[in-house]
Fold these 2 entries.
Entry 1:
Amino acid sequence: MLVKLRSLARSLYRVSEAILAAMLGLMFLAFLLQIAFRYLFNLPIGWTNELSAILWIWLVLWGAAFVVREEEEIRFDLVYASARPGARRVMFLISAVSLIVLYAISFPAVFDYVAFMRVESTAYLKIRFDWLFSIYLVFVVSVIVRYLWLAWQAAFGRAPQEFDPTKMGSGV
Amino acid sequence: MSIASPFSASIVAITALAFLGLPIGHAMIAGSILYLLLAGLDMGTAAEQLLNGMYANYIILAVPLFILAAELMNIGSMTDRLMAFCNAVVGRFRGGLAYVNIVQSIIFAGMSGSAIADAAGTGKMMQQMMTRDGKYPASYAAALTAVTAVIGPVIPPSIPMVIYALVSDASIGYLFLGGVVPGLLMALSQMGIVAFQARRLNFPVEPPTPLRKLPRIAWKALPSLMMPVVLLGGIYTGATTPTEAAAVAAAYALAISVLLYRSVSFGDFYRSILASARTSASIGMLIAGALVFNYVVTVENIPQSLSLLLAGWQLSPTVFLVLVNVLLLLLGCVLEGTTILLVIVPVLIPTARALGIDMVHFGVVVVVNIMIGLVTPPYGLLLFIMTRIAEVPLMDIVRDVLPFLWAMIGSLVLITYFPELVLWLPRLLGYQG
């Protein structure tokens, strides 16, 4: 049972990775199309701009919700890395609980904002903004669930490890 | 602003959460939610600022595309051919491989906008070449690769400059041009150090490549050498926007790797697109957090207050720039660069404007500072990457970085005092500032 669940989780992770990669691939393609249309067919198109901007929001929030690992996130880890495992456990718990509480408190207001945006649609593709922005709700719920799990582990499981800074996804 | 205001509570919360090790993007979103809560404002604003900011700032799309371009370049055999070309040109001098390291960084700088990608892409090969048969000490080779990678985002294209353009509204095209002379100046200062060390420490000379072979080697490297021309030509002729140019760069890298060098499988392509998407999502979270937090900062009028405060001190532009340099170099020792660009720099920009400092000049000075921060201990990402690749202790690399660090700070002082070094090229090509 546990083995089956593990392999299910792994395949789900692979799928969410593939979706993330597809979003960047599509954005890349949209840009090439946009340039091609302007020069080859002398026909400037606007919907590619819009599609890219939509994909960017989804890429970041989808990635943060389901794909990016703890060690890839950009953080200030000088203090965290030099703390002892016991202290690290406490540090992680405090920050995780604060994050969960603040994200949870804001959720109703955030939900209202996204729901309210159903009154508007995007200019070219006519996508309703509540659909477009709904990924933010997915992101908040996923972050809360993830940090609940991580906090549980930090409290009762192994003390959290230090992060390898070379894995950090920094673009500079 | 009182001590116990919602704003100060939110600053304390963000700093505390960041110190505790929470990802900085999350820390900024959470701290901003706290501000909205305490100030009795609508907490939905957090989502509104984040989503609309991400949706409306079109130029930021250049970031994922430049990351993709760098990844695609690193999977092809572009790197090998460029290395052979550099070796044929400068390998024959005393300290040949050290010069090869610098020259290949200049060429890479013209193709990729990320110092981290440059070091991760070429670092291993450079390290092997330089340490084979004990030619150079491993720590020296690692230090040199780290400091030459610093030039990457100073010479265009440049991901940090795109992020600076986002927070300052300066033109990406002119920022890119403004980085050319400072980047070459930094490379020259590094060559000066190598020339000095080569004689004193008797560095080896590479067997010279016969001149009649040079055209063939150059021809094989030509498609890669043309990359900056394609990229920058597109921007400056107005054929493509800087964001589109990033997509063209990625397409060009893919095309020559697949068509000319035939060195890319579909698996390679998938892996690099996934790796780029992951990095983009992680920077994107930082940008998202900064969008929300910068809203709070703007509501509280912080940049203007600082500007007024500093106006009271009657600073000259030069003194202000020196203070900015000191501040950013110190922050660079402990913070990751994108964070400084997105959180600290926006607060400084109104003051710089009020003092009449040119936004392109300011941007290049800021980016050079942040790049130098990648090799300053204790927290320097390039140092960490080279420690990993070279498998030598961090402190040994730091020791060998030091002479180069002083040389780069020397270049920084020059471009700070003489804005013409930055602005000459943009003005030549039509910049009105």
Note: Chain B touches chain A through 87 residues (CB under 8 Å).
Entry 2:
Amino acid sequence: MILTLVGISYGTLDEAARRARGVGADIVVRPPATSLIAASSSPMNAGLLPFFMKQPHVTFATGTMIQPLGGFDSLSGIDLSQFNQLSGGFRFLRGGPFQNDDDVIVDEYYAKEKNLDVGSTIILMNQRWRVSGIFESGKLARICAKLDVLQTLTGSPRKVSQIYLKVDDPPHAQSVVNDLRDKMPGYFIYTMEEFASLLTISSVGLLRNFIGVVIGIAVIVGFLVVSMAMYTAVLERTREIGILKALGASSGYILSLLFRETLCIAIIGTVVGIIMTYGTQWLMMHAVPATLTQETVYEWWPIAGAISVVGALLGAILPGWKAVKQDVIQALSYE
Amino acid sequence: MTVPLGRSNVARRSFFSGVGPQICVVALCGFTATTSRAQSTAEIFSRLDQAARSFIGATAAIRVTTHTRIIDEDETQVGTIAVRRYSHNGIQFLISFTGPDAQAIALRGQTLQVYYPKANTVREYDIGKYKDLAQKLILLGFGMPGRELAESYEVSNLGDERVQSQDSVHLQLTPRAQDVLRQLSRVDLWISLKTNCPIQQKFYLPGGDYRLASFSDVKVNPPLPASALDLPKGAKRERMN
């Protein structure tokens, strides 16, 4: 459970970072934190684009709009010709770019998950859209529509959610960012590398807490399951424990037997758990490839193993104590 | 729309919490003791307290100008606002903008609803504990007691001003909470001496951008049924969180 959830957390963030890098921009500009006052997800004036184009080293600027669709999905509004200049263009696997205002393009994973093909229709934001193309994943978003259409639909003409900048030479990106931060305090301005590095577990507080909770639950569940199993094992082996004690086995010897068995169970459980993560990974790749991405996080294998061993050993303490405290005569007469 | 105010999750810590009525008294006493305007500030607070007790609702025309400093450009939205108190602590509102950027924003309970007429869709966001923040920012001055202003802001009285042909008092509010202050430098509020409701709210962002909301044709406590603040029933509703 730990490995699967950690894998999903890492996978989802890494996928978002990969798609952000795939935009091909050097700098991203996001608006000041005014969502609540403006009650808008696209609070940035598109009039900023000419301003950015005049900045030293900036060779290109384009804005996109992001409309959340609920759950993990969002619909991105793009100016396709501008976006192609920035990113080098989408690589279409089937179909092609927008032709009409009600066209959308979707990435291969979204198409697979929703069973879409070129010409399929899909309802998003209470509108019927036609899929005009399916592109190779890894650029910006999973679903894209025309920027001006989305702006009109949401009553946000000339508004964008974020602006991407391209500079003449990537090493200049940091100096441009520093310059823009001085000129535009309050705006969130990052190099793309900086932005991608923010998409990590340690930077997303909610995810960090989530993993903490998962580990806590895993330890408790491990403790309870092992405790129950070993308690049952001790009950079932009451007579055997009595015989061992009658033959002179010490308390330490009996405890050692139980703990070794527990350790074996924990290690086997860890190995089985690791194998099962490949199963869940396969399942997600085939059932919900656009929604959930699971990665194999090797550095978490020993951590998960340690958590499993600790939880199991804690769970074995009480049954072990019961085994040690058993009276030999009563144990031998146990039916 | 994302509910949190940016990456620092400003609203995680309650904007308006942790300051008791004692502080208001101290604040009011401070005003009284220090300046010649102190008395008038205390009077204003007293009048706002009194007005808040009888406040059950208001309607007005609203004009919102968003200024982007770096390009010196203004964008304007016009529409109407209706505010209604439905319980002692509960205020709901509906802001409807018209024109090319037509949309409506409603808050009822913990649900913020954004209506897009062109998509005939209402998006519903459960804003949970951000409710108070949304209510107190957007409705700043509508039925808000003076003590609430003093709890949340350092208040400076900039004196009387005539705005939109109305006599008003100009208050400058600086958020007390440091995390809010990082996102919102200050708010200027012009309260009508006639209606005790705001004539203008001006929210200054750290970079110099601002959002100016002007209210005209303000009617206090008009007959306002709950249904007057409903969004169109036929619109498709989408739960966003």
Note: Chain B touches chain A through 52 residues (CB under 8 Å).
